[in-house]
Specification:
Blueprint (H helix, E strand, L loop, with lengths): L6 E11 L6 E8 L4 E3 L2 E3 L6 H13 L1 E16 L2 E15 L9 E5 L1 H7 L6 H13 L1
Parallel strand pairs: 1-6
Antiparallel strand pairs: 1-2, 1-4, 2-3, 2-7, 5-6
Helix pairs in contact: 2-3
């Protein structure tokens, strides 16, 4: 029997200014448990606001402090028969140091087109385009 309670999560398209064409790089995290590349994200704690959870997850998974910007589209999918909603924000990295851990063993900073190509889940790719659109209108 599946539990219909929505799993609430949040994350960020974490970015920094770069001298590369386009002027930005996006951080992707590699999770050894799933052997996948994704945007930093995670489940919210009980009572935690989504934006606060997104910033916390960025810090936990990448070691980066960040400055949140515009909200991006949420993603929706099922995990073990339960619906999951992940809310995202664009967030500029503003310092910090990555230290590999059991949850995330690598962080890659890539130009947007390369980041889009490395993402494991198709549902994560439109977030790169939404981030670029938000950056252009900022």
């Amino acid at each position: 029997m599946s539990d219909g309670t929505v799993i609430r999560a949040a994350g960020c398209v974490l970015w920094r200014r770069a001298s590369a064409p386009g002027g930005v790089e996006i951080a992707l995290v590699h999770r050894p448990k799933y052997d996948d590349w994704s945007h930093p994200k995670g489940k919210l704690k009980r009572g935690e606001e989504a934006l606060a959870g997104a910033v916390r997850e960025v810090a936990e998974e990448t070691g980066m402090d960040c400055r949140p910007g515009p909200e991006l589209p949420a993603t929706y999918y099922e995990v073990n028969g339960r619906p999951k909603e992940v809310r995202y924000w664009a967030a500029e990295a503003c310092g910090g140091t990555f230290v590999p851990n059991d949850e995330v063993d690598r962080v890659a900073w890539l130009p947007p087109a390369e980041a889009r190509g490395l993402l494991t889940q198709d549902r994560d790719r439109p977030l790169v385009d939404a981030f670029l659109a938000a950056l252009r209108t900022a």
